[in-house]
Amino acid sequence: MTKGSSAHYTLLIALKKVNLIFNDITPYYLQPSEARTAFERKKVDAWPIWEPFRAGAELQLNAHNLIDTTGLKPNNQFYLSSKDFTENKTDILQAILTTIKKADADIQDNPELLVKPVAKLTRLPEDVVAKSVSRYRYGLSYMNEEVLKEQQKVADMFFAEKLIPKPIDVKENVWFPK
User: Fold this and answer.
1) How confident is the model at residue 8, as a pLDDT?
2) Once rounded to an integer, what is the mean pLDDT over residues 57-63?
3) Measured between alpha carbons, how far is 90 from 177 in angstroms, rounded to an integer?
4) What is the pLDDT of residue 62?
5) Which residues, 6+ apart, have CB-to-CB distance to 177 below 8 Å?
6) CATH 3.40.190 residue ranges in the chain?
7) Disulfide engineering: 30 pairs with which of 35, 60, 84, 139, CB 3.0-4.6 Å?
8) Average pLDDT taken over every residue of the chain
């Protein structure tokens, strides 16, 4: 698994749900392509991973899901920028957000529009991309208290597990539209 990733957090809360701790397992910190190779060669027994790698493992390796993360945690995607950009390039930021909103609406209505360009960009087969695309929720929304609270839980757990060196106040690092 990729250290400090959303998959790492998912693993931590899944272990907690079944009354296990991180020290009960033997983790291997690998990037997705390395982890897939290790999984294919049976060097690891399980692989916490995100899309589109999950869809690829299911379709190409006949991998099976060990857990359904429904109810464990929300699955949010984030757009990141520097503080300078959000404070000083508001016109460009608004143009980008408008474009993202339109693209998300188009994809929500016609998810197949995304398959070919993503397959080309990622060099993944179209069936893998199609399965992955079908699993996402599309639509831009701004950070809210619920998402902030969940992200704070991630930061707190990563600090408790010594994955980050100091506590983080997530709210201090979020841009809110005016």
Assistant:
1) 94
2) 95
3) 10
4) 95
5) 142
6) 6-76+142-173
7) 35
8) 92
Q: What string of DSSP letters covers 93-149? A: HHHHHHHHHHHHHHHHH-THHHHHHHHHHHT--HHHHHHHHHH---------HHHHH
Candidates 3.40.190, 3.30.1330, 2.30.230, 3.30.450; correct CATH number of 6-76+142-173? 3.40.190
Paired tokens of 56: 């690829």
In this structure, the dihedral spanned by the alpha carbons of residues 15, 17, 21 and 24, taken in order and rounded to 10 degrees, is: -50
pLDDT tens readout for residues 79-98 = 999 999 999 999 999 999 99
Of 142, 147, 173, 3, nearest to 75 (Cα)? Answer: 147
Q: And the tokens for 54?
A: 């999950």
Burial class of residue 164 in the structure, from the number of CB atoms within 10 Å of its CB (0-12 exposed, 13-18 middle, 19+ buried): middle
- Give the confidence band of 136 by pLDDT, cuts at 50, 70, 90: confident
